[in-house]
């Protein structure tokens, strides 16, 4: 049962405790090594295969979806449509997911607050609202939920309640799987676009929805805590797998640097590079730094392409497609997966066009913007810019960066959801390494050595848990004091007070602390602007841009740290 995670119907917003993309792929492919995917685990008779049960549900729901769309077309504009959305669509959907006929639930009270969640099953709150209500916006006054969006209402409940860990919210167009994320500074949820799934009849994506949101995934034995449900078991396994994958990513970055280092030394067109290294004009540590910058350019492009952030929304479609077909790192990943590579050097020449376009004045023919900054400037890899490297060495480096190995299984690195702290951890490992070069043998390797750059520059990576503790003790009191001073003067004064705060990291390293501080401040700013306990992603992103533009400053003794 093959599965592709397509952005048309699935939107993953992950901050570590929600299910990552590689786990979703394993679930969608019915990975035999993943527990919980047998027919018995879904309460099916052994004679019934999972695919058969899913197909029966799919057939029935296609008819329900068409009927729901017809009824919506006849709904008066003055009717919010909550009953129609539930009765004609969402309740049948949950019935096919094994919950039976969901009944209306009583409001949940926690710490003196009331949460009017519409439905529930065991310890799983299920909030179903009208198609005419946006999950991220405050509902109309006549709709339940008070001053919280449907998403914010459910998330606030999960964060405050020890008895509820996972929940589902849907308006019939989107269905979101949420988890308690009280300790996180960013939203974390899994979203299925029901419109895309049923309008385009994407059975593959429905399969993943069925496998993830089935009643058996949140079912608890009598008296069992919420942590024992299958979703949480999978989440913990994914966290352990992610830790192993991060170790492999560190190794992959080192292998990529070594492959590039050997490749540039081996190519016969790079005699000037040999002369510079032999004479000392190019220090061996500088050669390593330039290779590292090249790898970080590749990492940047992996993330930007996978998150669809490289192009402007107004980008010309023909130019965009030209880039994706002939110049993208996604193309290099596809080639690296299928081929070893040859002695030709055309792939690096194409990559050089991209890097120059990003570093100078942009390249309209490929829709590439000029990024500015040092990383993509010609000086950053001056010894490599006009050099050549064989396709086999470049593809070896791409393979090391793009793929992980779990036993005999090869998995793609999930750059779309790679977090800043994971990149910081990779950066920490690189500071331990020292280049070893044998020019005559055209060999380049990295080894750990005493007196390395990390120790001599005082560069150390700060773990995520310590960063959050530091933000709690150092940043939050300052934010609260700013609130107290500005609150009597209204919302505009509070916003201004937040944006006037200055956060300085005098040893910023990979920027891990500053990025975490930015997200913490952005959340406060978004809360002020919306009054919603769980602001929408759009509002939060705008707040993040404003915070970065006004509040953050970083310094470091190690120039490489500041660059990265």
What descriptors fit this protein?
564 residues; alpha+beta; 14 strands; 51% helix; disordered N terminus
Write the layout of secondary structure elements.
Layout: E1 10-13, H1 21-28, H2 50-73, H3 82-99, E2 108-110, E3 113-115, E4 119-121, E5 124-128, H4 150-160, E6 166-170, E7 174-179, E8 189-193, H5 194-199, H6 203-213, H7 230-266, H8 271-279, H9 284-306, H10 317-326, H11 329-338, H12 346-359, H13 382-385, H14 391-402, E9 403-406, E10 409-412, H15 420-431, E11 433-438, E12 443-448, H16 453-457, H17 464-486, H18 491-499, E13 503-505, H19 512-530, H20 537-551, E14 552-554, H21 559-563
Parallel strand pairs: 5-6, 13-14
Antiparallel strand pairs: 1-8, 2-3, 4-5, 6-7, 7-8, 9-10, 11-12
Helix pairs in contact: 2-3, 2-6, 7-9, 7-14, 7-15, 11-14, 17-18, 17-19, 18-19, 19-20
Strand content: 5-15%
Distance linking N and C termini: 40 Å
- Main sheet: strands, sense, barrel: 6 strands, mixed
Mean pLDDT: 86
The radius of gyration computed from the alpha-carbon positions, rounded to a whole number of angstroms, is 26 Å
Shape: globular
User: What are the low-pLDDT stretches, counting only 5+ consecutive residues below 50?
Assistant: 1-8, 12-17
Helicity, as a percent range:
40-55%
Alpha-beta content class: alpha+beta
Q: What is the number of E strands?
A: 14
Strand order of the largest sheet: 1-8-7-6-5-4
Tally of DSSP helical segments: 21
